[in-house]
Each structure stands twice: as C-alpha cells, then as structure tokens.
Amino acid sequence: MVSKILDKLPLRTVLIVPFILQIVGAVGLVGYLSFRNGQKAVNNLASQLMNEVSLRVEQNLQVYLKTPHQINQTKLDAVKLGLLKMENLSAWEKYLLRQVQLYPYINYTSVGNENGDYRSGEQLSNGSRTINVIEKSTGLNFYSYNTDKNGDRTTVVTVVKNFDNRQHPAYKSAVKSGKPTWSSVFVSLLEPTLIINALQPVYSEKNQLEGVLCAALRLDHLGRFLNSLKVGKSGQTFIIDRQGTLLATSTTEKPFRTKGNKKLLFKVEESSNPFTEATAKYLSAQFHQLNQIKKSELLEFEIDGKRQLLKVLPFQDGKGLDWLIVVVVPEADFTKEIDANTRTAVLLCFAALGVAVAIGILTSRWVTNPILSLNTAAKNIAKGEWNQTVESERSDELGELAKSFNSMAQQLQQSFETLEHRVHERTAELAVAKDKAEVANQAKSTFLANMSHELRSPLNAILGFSQLMTRSQTLSPEHQENISIISSSGEHLLTLINNVLDLSKIESGRTTLNQKKIDLYRLLNDLEDMFQLKADDKHLQLVFERSTEVPQFVETDDLKLRQILINLLNNSLKFTEEGGVSVRVSKQLSGRNQNREGEKFYLSGSLNNREVSASNNLEVSQLNQSKNAIFATQHDEAEAASSFFLHFEVEDTGPGIATNELDNLFEAFVQTKTGKDSQEGTGLGLPISRKFVELMGGEMSVCSAVGKGTNFKFDLQVIAVDAADIESRKPTRNVIALEPNQHTYRILIVDDKPLNRQLLIKILHPLGFELKEATNGQEAIEIWDTWEPHLIWMDMRMPVMDGYEATQYIKTTIKGQATAIIALTASVLEEERAVILSAGCDAFMRKPFREADIFDAMHKHIGVRYLYEDPGQANLLGIKEGDRAMTAADFVKLPDSLVADLKLAILNADMDLIDSSIEQIRLKDAVTAGAIANCIENFEYDKVLKLISQTISHE
Fold first, then answer.
1. Tell me, what's the pLDDT at 616?
2. Alpha carbon 670 to chain centroid, angstroms
3. What are phi and psi of 220, to 5 degrees?
4. Are strands 770-774 and 746-750 parallel, antiparallel or unpaired?
5. Helix, strand or coil, per DSSP, at residue 395
6. Positions of E strands within 706-745
7. Strands 820-825, 843-846: parallel, antiparallel or unpaired by DSSP?
C-alpha cells in the first residue's frame, strides 16, 4: 500500500522531502547540542562562581573576625607580662587609643576591672577619637573626653551618671563564658553600623576574675567587602544569623531600621530589597528553621517564573558565632547569550528550509554530495576532531550552509578551548586554596599545641602534688578522700584534653599506629578489674566472654584498643540502670560486621534470655557508619599467614538509642538525648573510637532497640605472636630512699613555673639529693658553670632564654658532655621530640609525669640506685639494720607522733624513753629503727636531731 502511494508521488517531491528533512534534522540537532552544551557549561560556571564567592567571603570572615580577639590577646599578654595592671587603668589610655588607630574597622577597644573602673579608646568614622573613663572614685560616672594628637584628654564630651560597667550585658556574658567569646550584635548609637564585641575575661594566677577585655568590631566594613564582590550581573551576597537577622549585605540597604530615636535590627525576610526578601522567604519555607542548615547547600528556586541559583554556607568560628553566608544569582545572568544563539539557530533553520523548498528541484542532483560532506564532518566533530571544515566554492544556499557549519564548528572549537582554559585556571585556584587550607591547618595545630602546653603545666602540679599527698601517712581519711577526688578530677581533665588532641590529630591525618606485642587475656582482665567496682556500685552484672579460638598473644596497638573498650564500657555502665553489660570477643575470618536484613541479635543473652529479631514486633535501628576497607600493611609471608580479625561486642541493657539519633551518633561533640540528660561527657568518645577502629583496619557498627539496649560491634586486624615475644610486666614499687654508699648527686631544676619546680623538689629533696633551682635558661647556665650538677631537669619553654638555647650552649662544651639533661615539656606533638633531642637533650619527658618516671630516668642517665617500699625486695633484705645510711626521707614516712617522742627523749637525754621510742619505730620500719639505734650507740645524737629538723623544715 505504501509503495503504491510512493510510486504515484512526483520525483521532485521524493527528492525534496528527504532533503528538507535532512536540513531540518541537521540544523535542529546541531542547535540542540549547542544549546545543551552551553547550558551545561553555564551551570558549571555558575556553580564554580558561587563556590568561589562563598569561599572568599568565608576566608575574609575568618581573617576579619580573628582581629578583635587578637587585639584582646595582646592586651592579655601585656597584663600577664606585667606591662599593664588591671588595678591601674590610667596607664591603659594611650595604649587603647593606639590600638583603634591601627585598626580602622575597630570602633573601640576597652578594659574594665572588678572594681568598676573602665577605660576605652574610641574612634569614629570622621576620624575623631575619644577616651571614655569610669572610676569608682568618681561614683562610677561615665566621662567621655576628646583627645589631642598626643592622645591626652582635652574637653569633656559626655557624662553619664551611675554607669556600672560590671552590670553591662557584655561584661556579664564574658564572665559567664569564662573564655574568649562574642557579644550579641547591636546597632551603634553614634555610627551607622552594626557592632559585635569580642570579649576576653582576665583571671589572676589564683583563677580569680580581675576584669574583662573588649574589642568592638564594625560590621559595615564587611558590607563593603560584600559589595565589592561581583556575582554575575545582578547577584547578591548577604550574611545572616541563625535567627534570620540581617547582618551584612552586598546591596546598598542598611542592616538596621530607624524608628523614632531608636535603631533596630530586622529579619532578612523584612528586607526592602525584593530579591533579598524573596530569597529569605524561600530559605524559611525550605528549612522551616535555619538551625537545620548543617552543611553547604546548593539550591534552586523561582521568582516570577525565573530560575534562581542559591548557595548557603554555614560559618562558625569556634567562639560562639554561628552565621550563614548566602549567595544568590539569577540564571538569566548566564543564559542571555544562549537564548540569543538559540533564536538565531531557529531562524537559520527556517531560512534554509525555505531556500531548499524553492530550489529543491534544480539542486536535487548536486545536493547529495555536499550533504554527505556535512554529515561526515559532523561525525568527526562528534568524535572530538574539532578542526573539521567543509570546503565549498559555491555561493548558493548549500554553500552558505557549508559556511555556517564551518562557523559553528569553529565556535564549538573555541568554546571547548575556552572551557579547557577555565578548567586549568580553576585547577590553579584550587591548588592555591589547598595551600591556604594547609596553612590554616598548621595554624590550628600550633594553637592546639600551645593550649595543651598551657593546660598541661598546671595539671602537672595538680597531679604531682596529689601523688605526694596520697603517700602521706598523716592525712585523715577525709583528707585522703579529698585528695583522691582532686587526683581523679585532674586525670579526667587530662583525658578530656587528650581526647580533643586525639580528634585533632585524626582530622589532620597525623595519628599513627604503634604496634606492640601484648597479652590480650591480661588486657581484658585488667579492664574487667577496672570496671567491676563501678558495676558493683550500680548493682549491674559485668560479663567478659571470649571464645576458645581467640589467641592469648597478639600484635596490635594496645593503647588504642584499650581506649576503644574503655570508651564503650564507660558509656554502657553510665547509662545502664538495671541488667548488665557484656563484652564478647571472638575470632573472625573477615573484617565485615554488617548485619543482613532480618538478622537476629541478642540483648545480653546471659542477662536477659530473650531473642529479638529485626523483622519482629520490636523496631530495631541499626547503622554501619564505617566504610573503611581492610587496611593494608606490609608484612612478610609469616606475618601475613598469621594475620586475622578479632570481633568485639560491647552490649548493654540500657535505654537504647532512637532511630533519629543514629545518623549523628559518631559525629564529634554530638550526644544522644540520654547523654544530654545525664549532663556528662563531651561527645568525643565514640568518634575517636570509630576513627581508631578504622585506623586499625576494622569497622564499627551499632544495633540499638529503644528501651531494650545497645550493642556496639567492631573488628580489628591483629597478628598472632608467641608468648616469648611478650615483655613481662614490671612490678610497681615506691621509692623511699637512696641506696647507701653512693656519692651525693647534684640536681638542677630549671622551670619558669614555681609550682613545677616545687613539685620536683618535694619529690627529690626527701631522698637526700642536693638541689638548686633556676627560672630560665640563662640562670641555668650560670649555676651549671659554677656548681656542675650531675643532671638537669630542663623546661623547654621559658622567658629570657628557653631550654633549647640553654641546652645547646651546655652541650657544646666539653664539661657539658658530662651533664645529663632531660627535657620536661607540656607539648604533645611527636615532631617536637626530634627537635628537643637534636638540641642536645639526653631524654624527653612530657608533663604531667609520674613520680616513677622521674626516678627511672635518673637511674638510667646518672645511675642513681634506690631503696623501695616493698619489704620483700632484695635490696632491703640484703641490708642489715645497723649498716644502712640514714636520711631525712626515713623520718618523713614515720608518724609525726613517733618522731616527736624520739626528739623529746633525745633532748631530755632520757635513755629509757629513747629505747621505747626506737622499739615503737621498729614496729613500723625495722631498718630505720636499726639505723637510729646505731646512731644512738655511737652517740650521734646531733645527727639524728639534724635529720628530724630537716624533715620538719621541709614539711
């Protein structure tokens, strides 16, 4: 039927119709491809532009908002160095004026103390500067003075009666925070700008509040920066807080409204700019609450049917600020040229079609070859051969078509080259951004190292003196309990600091594995002993189970494994009120612990004999957060053959975890509702544990049933080892004295902190060491040169001359080679160990340290030998009562009443009372009693009285 109809058509029609269809198809296809490629390029360009703008705004904010806190830090440093006094604010005036001169975007900088005194230097946009004064002596009245070019007061500008700076909201906010923070944003009374105060409380060495430092930042400079950014032709950038308040915008709109005599902040949805208002309303409709925006969002919406591109970037500075950076650009800014090209292509298509119909009959014979040439060239271009052209000397429509095709191909080639060039430029920009990010990361690491040093130094004193007082036999049980609380609180604070540092090391990729051959059974038994008392206190069962195929001796990072189990057990015991906690260990063939659909699990089978299925009536939430592949380490063939996975489970019968909380369970500083209700913990234990598991080549997952309990599972890759490879555990022994027949050791203690020096003196003086102190490296060199100590305990960070320089000076001399120098530092960075040892130190010890570490280091480096508290030790048994040299340390460990009775008996020359006192002492310490009796028999009364006096004066 079809063939009959075609046979009846004129040949002209048969030739013209296919020709016309080809022309329309070719032009339409090329136009469509051109349109789609252009649109894709525009979308990519718009996305890159918005990302670049938001990142530039974020980087500028970081620098801009860091300045006021740096200003406060310089003031705080001046106070700590004694250059400025919090009780004498008159000396601050020119210093504060100088600060506002140096920073034009700082409105004022101030200081206020707890007496109510206040000073501030203020600079207005017209260049005028004033000194503002509040003094208790003048009734706490606020005086504002004009200043001359030298910064001296001239005339009074304003007087405000009864203005107590201590009642100001910013002052109270800083005191409540106890650390660097921000005030609320407010509108300046004198300037057309918003202001936010950077606040810094100042505390004395006794941790008493002395006052508050403040630096007021103008936000109009931020608006000028946003205005300088070009986001397309009509795009906008603005900054809001989580309540939707407009803080800065790239438009000419002021971020405040004037009503009467008041200047008020307003919501961004109330903006007079229609574009800004529409964007804000879309954000409110999309997220309901701006607090839901946790990460960078790239969105699209329409205004009057026109597509808009939107980028929202959260910004936090770690000191309380939580803002949103919003970048919005109309799509039309990028598509105008594409629309014009599309219209042109459509018009050319119709023109070519009309010409083809008009002369189709005459050109049908010689139309085929040009079409084939065009088709071939188009296919080559589609393959990426952009240099293809169609040669034609004709000047008719086909010749025009060939020229148009060549022009189009040339445009496509140019577009491709342009895009390629932009890709190279963007790659270079990303490389620069990466370098900046690495610099910022290094700055963060340096900051954490400094903060760790400042926190560990006082902790060293707290924990050290707690250890000393714990050993005292004269403390009452109540005081012993108080000391125990102080020590445990210090250990808890040290754990928190270590957790933050561990998280920082993990984020920066600087955490490494420290493989060690361990006794796994002993590690598990130690943990069971550690937590058994806590479980008993809460009347909970604590069950440790291990399958028979689990080997006793393995090679792994025992510290990280211990930390993982401690974190999980702490959480389980903390939140479980009845039932118990079960720890199970088994051997696995692979590192996968994902639960299949419908898989059954048990809620402490030993405690609650009930099986629960994920497909049963109980709704079970399970989450596998880890996607880490099995880690690859280079082993030899023997190690590879003995490598396997251990499977751990820590299960409890606690309240369980809700489904909606599982997604954020392993995020840093995030706690479940149960954790928040308990008001305990920091939200770091689980993130650190999961990261440690991934670092050790395993995975961590959690199954939880609300009201039934929670089961944490993880796998670790370990290597089986022989029992002979395990180091034996050394018994803990307390040093009570030096072995006799040793020469007197001279020890120099160098530290700028008096408490740190006093701690070492308390530890070493009772044993009979000769001690001297130095507060900096220069004093240490002078004492070392004249006194020639055997060993120097050297702090590395000190004023005047630090420990590095002093160590290098001493070790470069021949005499200095005979002196052992051990570095004491609060730094936690591993790379600093190499720096310290390269400076010449013989050893490296971190604060806070243990007393036993001090004694072990002195034995290792200068050969000091000790007597220990354990009466079963060989060195005590081998010493006869009368052959032992007596020191003041012998009297320190005796009850005060016995020492007092002995002293009184010797002073009264009462031999019967002396013998009675010695017998009483013999019941406590037979060796010391024998040494005292030997002195009495040799009429060495003065020696005994001198040692007793040294003990009393030392205390």
1. 33
2. 14
3. -70, -30
4. parallel
5. coil
6. 709-720, 735-738
7. parallel
- For residue 562, what are the contacts with CB-CB under 8 A and spacing of at least 6? 523, 527
Tokens of 74: 């310089």
Rounded Cα distance between 343 and 46, Å, is 22
Q: Are 112 and 209 in contact (CB under 8 A)?
A: no
- The one-character DSSP state at 744 is P
Rounded to 5°, the CA angle 607-610-613 comes to: 130
Closest to 237 in 3D by CA, of 334, 309, 317, 333: 309
pTM above 0.85, yes or no: no
SS3 call for 600: strand
pLDDT at position 606 is: 35
User: Which of 255, 237, 258 minimizes the C-alpha distance to 247?
Assistant: 255
What mean pLDDT do residues 738-757 have? 89
Q: Give 209's strand partners.
A: 203
pLDDT of residue 731: 58
Strand partners, 187: 194
Residue 94 gets which letter from DSSP?
A: H
pLDDT single digits (tens) 458-514: 766 676 677 667 666 666 766 766 766 676 566 656 666 665 666 565 655 556 677
* Residues 6+ positions from 687 with CB-CB distance below 8 Å: 503, 666, 667, 668
Q: Using DSSP, state whether 296 is helix, strand or coil.
A: coil
Helix (H) or strand (E) holding 326, with range, is strand 322-330
Question: Exposed, middle or buried by CB within 10 Å (0-12, 13-18, 19+), for 755?
Answer: middle
Tokens at 933, concatenated? 């009796």
Q: Where are the alpha helices (DSSP H) in 666-772?
A: 673-678, 685-695, 754-764
Map tokens 């993982």 to a residue.
564
Closest listed residue to residue 103, CA positions, set 118, 119, 121, 91: 121
Q: Which helix (H) or strand (E) holds 792?
A: strand 791-795
Give me the residue label for tokens 């806190």: 69
**What pLDDT, in 10s, does the model give residues 836-853?**
888 899 998 887 777 888
d(CA 88, CA 372): 94
- Do the beta carbons of residue 756 and residue 776 sit within 8 Å? no
Output the six-digit token pair for 146: 């004009």
- Reduce the DSSP state of residue 117 to 3 states and report it: coil
Name the DSSP letter for residue 742.
Answer: -
The alpha carbon torsion through 692, 694, 699, 702 (nearest 10 deg) reads 50
* Adjacent-strand bridge partners of 772: 748
Average pLDDT, the chain: 78
Using DSSP, how many helices (H) and how many strands (E) does the chain show? 26, 33
246-249/153-160 β-pairing: unpaired
Which of 697-701, 890-894, 951-955 shows the lowest per-residue confidence on average (mean pLDDT)? 951-955
Residue 798, by phi and psi: left (phi above 0), alpha (psi -120 to 50) or beta?
Answer: beta
**Nearest residue to 556 (alpha-carbon basis) of 444, 499, 631:** 631
Cα atoms in the 13 Å half-sphere on the side-chain side of 793: 30
Q: Could you give the C-alpha distances from 719 to 547, 580, 775, in angstroms and in order? A: 17, 31, 49
Peptide bond into 477 cis (omega under 30): no
Chain-centroid distance of CA 628 in Å reads 22
DSSP letter for each residue of 492-525: HHHHHHHHHHHHHHHHTT------EEEEHHHHHH
Does residue 9 carry a pLDDT above 60? no
Query: How many CB atoms neighbour CB 297 within 10 A?
Result: 16
Q: How confident is the model at residue 790 (pLDDT cuts 50, 70, 90)?
A: very high
Nearest to 924 by CA among 952, 897, 953, 888: 897
Contacts of residue 676, defined as CB under 8 A and 6 or more positions apart, other chains included, come to none
Identify the H or E element spanning 937: helix 926-937
Cα 564 to Cα 559: distance, rounded to the nearest angstrom: 9
- Phi, psi (deg, nearest 5) at residue 916: -65, -40
Could you identify the residue written with the tokens 């307003």? 266
Strand ranges (DSSP E) for 26-117? Answer: 106-113
